[in-house]
Design goal:
192 residues; alpha+beta; six-stranded antiparallel sheet; four-stranded mixed sheet; 5 helices; 29% helix; globular
Length: 192
């Protein structure tokens, strides 16, 4: 329930223009839970917005078409959020954090949209974990095999993903999650 609550609120904020809605009028952007952890002061649910059951699913608010092209897959993967994090104690949601990616030409920017559903306040925080495509998107691409020529390229200072003839720097999930935990810790210190 807490994951659903986060997704619904975040989607209202981020996808007002999408046409597909559920029976309660909320946009549909399918996700899967990729982690649930308990810490001293809070619990953290991590979610991933999938490619497979969104891009070609007519019930999804982010539906592209029945047979997406490689360009459609790439645009979906680089323009829509990959991750959402819900900070809660039991069923009581304290914070919602979504990693938002924007691309302008060859420039990629990631930032966190952090909101408190209890008081309606929100803030954007820059993301220091650099990349051009999220690690979970790459993992899903590898499973989907939409580009037979796609490959992961290991380099001394990072990893690239070659997709549709262009190499993109992979944003590592482990580092990203560590940064999310630092943000949560900072916010919790301020609230005490």
């Amino acid at each position: 329930m807490k994951t659903l609550t986060f997704i619904l609120i975040a989607l209202i904020a981020f996808t007002k223009s999408f046409a597909q809605i559920d029976s309660k009028g909320n946009p549909i952007f399918n996700s899967v839970v990729i982690g649930e952890e308990k810490f001293d002061d809070f619990e953290l649910t991590s979610s991933y917005f999938t490619i497979a059951n969104n891009i070609s699913d007519k019930n999804s608010s982010v539906y592209i078409n029945d047979n997406p092209s490689l360009s459609d897959y790439l645009k979906f993967s680089r323009d829509l959020p990959s991750y959402a994090f819900t900070v809660h104690q039991g069923e009581q949601v304290q914070l919602m954090i979504m990693l938002v990616q924007t691309n302008k030409g060859s420039e990629t920017d990631f930032h966190y949209y952090v909101s408190n559903p209890n008081n309606g306040k929100s803030v954007e925080i820059p993301c220091a974990v650099w990349g051009e495509i999220s690690e979970k998107r790459v993992e899903e691409f590898e499973k989907l095999k939409v580009d037979a020529d796609a490959e992961i390229i290991e380099l001394p200072k990072g990893t690239l993903y070659s997709f549709n003839g262009i190499a993109y720097r992979i944003q590592p999930y482990k580092e990203l999650k560590e940064e999310v935990l630092q943000i949560i810790e900072s916010i919790n210190k301020v609230r005490k």
